[in-house]
Automatic annotation (TrEMBL):
Keyword Transferase attributed: yes
Matching Gene3D superfamilies: Glycogen Phosphorylase B (3.40.50.2000)
Protein name per Swiss-Prot or TrEMBL: Glycosyltransferase family 4 protein
SUPFAM superfamilies, alphabetized: UDP-Glycosyltransferase/glycogen phosphorylase
Domain Glycosyltransferase subfamily 4-like N-terminal as annotated: residue spans: 14-192
Keywords from the UniProt entry: Glycosyltransferase, Transferase
Entry keyword annotation includes Transport: no
Domain of life according to the entry: Bacteria
Domain Glycosyl transferase family as annotated: residue spans: 202-359
């Protein structure tokens, strides 16, 4: 079976890209798999991708390729997209040129299964992909993150998909209710981690780690506020933040204003998050919402306990508070600081949570996730022939 996975930009960094590459790797052990990136801005992907997976792109934005663009291409890149809804969270990345090549790609698609990985691409597939291709829209954002306008398009076009895959049970319930009466099936399949050994934390470094895009939804402003309270009492503990994004300068100024220059380091992006997690003793999630929370599972697998705000949707479905991590009332800065301090002062509790977290991570092994995808493929084939 040939499976084509369509993603906005496979050459960047982030949880969706990492999860997509992990899925493609596992499925490529069983099927022919390609990843198609709408955009390309660098020579090679930032994150590693299995040699078994074919990678291609539709719009090449690398500086060295621009001199070969015809005038028409450059002009279309400046015109806004009409294929994507303006409330698509990544709308500004798309253009009339991406509309043109994406339309051609989808209408000419030769694959048994197409997996799309964000709302705008899910809708485009429902509108344009040829009959006979099994269409699976994967949702990495939680249902409530969609704005009203694009939610109306979701309601209109998702019934044309064969399946919607959510990462959490809460989103499963929301999409199942929305799609009730349509032939579209809804499945919950979390993201998976590659099987095999990985670096383990010894929990002896006084380091707290956060990782993800430096954007508002990740809540690093809330993290800095909480860590300022921690640093007053435990100045020997350090916070390392990995990632890049539009709020980098703003967050840097906030850290300086909070006098955290000796306690907080903005480390930039990394393609070895597992190795960096193993150097830490606590992982933190301060997001305003999370579609899943891939770094939670990665931290568990590295033997690192997680402290997270109880935000929608992923963290409360992955973390069992008091067993493998700690959930803090969403937005309660004082409670978050207190949770960090409690673990810093209790190494036995830190190790107990770490051991339980390793067991939790086993539920997210890529081999088990791949089995669930294969079960879904079989279910959808049966539905088409019934």
């Amino acid at each position: 079976m040939k499976i084509s996975i369509l993603i906005m930009n496979a050459y960047g960094m982030g949880g969706t890209i990492r999860a997509t590459f992990n899925l493609a790797d596992e499925l490529s052990r069983r099927h022919e798999v390609e990843v198609v990136s709408v955009f390309r801005h660098r020579d090679t992907p930032f994150l590693p991708l299995s040699d078994r997976v074919t990678l291609s792109s539709l719009v090449d934005l690398r500086p060295e390729t621009r001199k070969w663009w015809r005038f028409g291409v450059a002009s279309r890149l400046k015109k806004p997209s009409t294929l994507m809804h303006p409330e698509e969270r990544a709308y500004d990345n798309f253009s009339a040129e991406s509309d043109r090549v994406l339309t051609r790609h989808l209408t000419d698609l030769r694959a048994d299964v197409l997996v799309t990985t964000r709302a705008g691409l899910n809708i485009a597939a429902a509108r344009l992909a040829p009959a006979g291709v099994t269409l699976i829209g994967q949702e990495h954002l939680h249902f409530g993150a969609h704005k009203p306008g694009i939610l109306e398009e979701i309601r209109a076009w998702y019934p044309k998909l064969d399946a919607v895959v959510t990462l959490t049970d809460a989103d499963h319930a929301a999409y199942a209710q929305m799609l009730e009466g349509s032939p579209t099936r809804v499945y919950t399949i979390g993201n998976g981690l590659p099987d095999g050994p990985r670096p383990q934390s010894r929990l002896d470094n006084r380091v707290v780690i956060a990782a993800g895009r430096l954007v508002r939804v990740k809540g690093y402003d809330r993290l800095l506020d909480a860590f300022a309270k921690v640093a007053e009492k435990r100045p020997d503990w350090k916070l390392r933040i990995y990632g890049q994004g539009t709020q980098a300068d703003k967050l840097g100024r906030r850290a300086r204003r909070l006098n955290l220059h000796n306690n907080v380091a903005f480390m930039g992006p990394t393609n070895d998050i597992e190795g960096e997690l193993a150097k830490a003793s606590i992982h933190v999630i301060t997001s305003r919402f999370e579609g899943f929370g891939m770094t939670i599972v990665e931290a568990f697998a590295a033997g690192v306990p997680v402290v997270s705000f109880d935000c929608p949707q992923g963290p409360p479905e992955i973390i069992t508070s008091g067993e493998d991590g700690l959930l803090v009332p969403d937005g309660d800065i004082d409670a978050f600081a207190d949770a960090l301090l409690s673990l810093m002062d209790d190494p036995e509790e830190l190790r107990r949570l770490a051991e339980n977290g390793r067991r939790t991570a086993l539920r997210y092994r890529s081999s088990e996730v791949g089995d669930r995808w294969d079960e879904m493929f079989a279910d959808l084939r049966h539905a088409r022939t019934a």
